[in-house]
Structures
1.
Amino acid sequence: MNPKRLKFILKLGVTIIAVWTVLTLWVQYSGKQNVQYVQAENEIKKALIIYNPDPIYNLDEQVCQSFAQGLRDHNISSKIATVKSVDQNDHFDLYVFCVNTYNWTPDWQLTNFIKSHPALKDKKVTAITVGAGATMRAQRKLEWHLKDKGADLLGSEMYWLLKPNDDSRMKEKNTEVAKDQARLFGKGIGALITSN
């Protein structure tokens, strides 16, 4: 191979790796502090919904809000908080972890939060994995982290930005389908924890 061509390919490869590394660090650590509340009128239980905000598109936040609306239908109030806004000493009846998928794995901020949480053993938890479309590995890793902490995993779902969330609803906006599915998932989990 021509030495000039080899040098060009090498430089291009190094540049791509450097840009990829910078982008990965940016999306993993650029999260902000944010807290929202979805209050149930006749509150009987409380949920904490945690996410690390994606700086490019907020599907994670939208899905969390929709899930909280589903919980509200079963008189469960929700605190929706970014990782940087959560006090690990607060106690809830349900913990919902919504992770973004970066490089086929769950985001570092949230997995580190789970690993360091002092009291997830036997707590009721739910896993939500969001991403462009290739989220299966990230979902498995998130579930593994929760089970490793001894948490009681009630359910786990994935929602996508680009991959269709429901093949029978192709004419609808994909994010709207994801939000609708998250609301229904929240209703199902709400029914499950209020029946116990």
2.
Amino acid sequence: MNKAVGGILIAAAIVGIFRHVTAPVPAPGKESIAKPPRPVPQLAVEREDFRCDGRQYCRQMTSCAEARYFLEHCPGVKMDGEKDGIPCEDQWCGLQ
């Protein structure tokens, strides 16, 4: 009976290896049909002319780039009421 069990185990191992080796491979050029992910807004704006100077509100900004810099680099700003990472949406950085 031990020979029968050993034969079954060997046969199962061979079948497992065969299934692994003969797994379907995608045709060239058809690896992925999924759409690429949407780009994430770039918030880190490195500009030498922007400085954290105590301003906190959108009404104190002069551009979206400045508001983004302040949101990313300056403490205590109040420019992202929705907490979505986009500052001053009504005044400067609204998505069209």
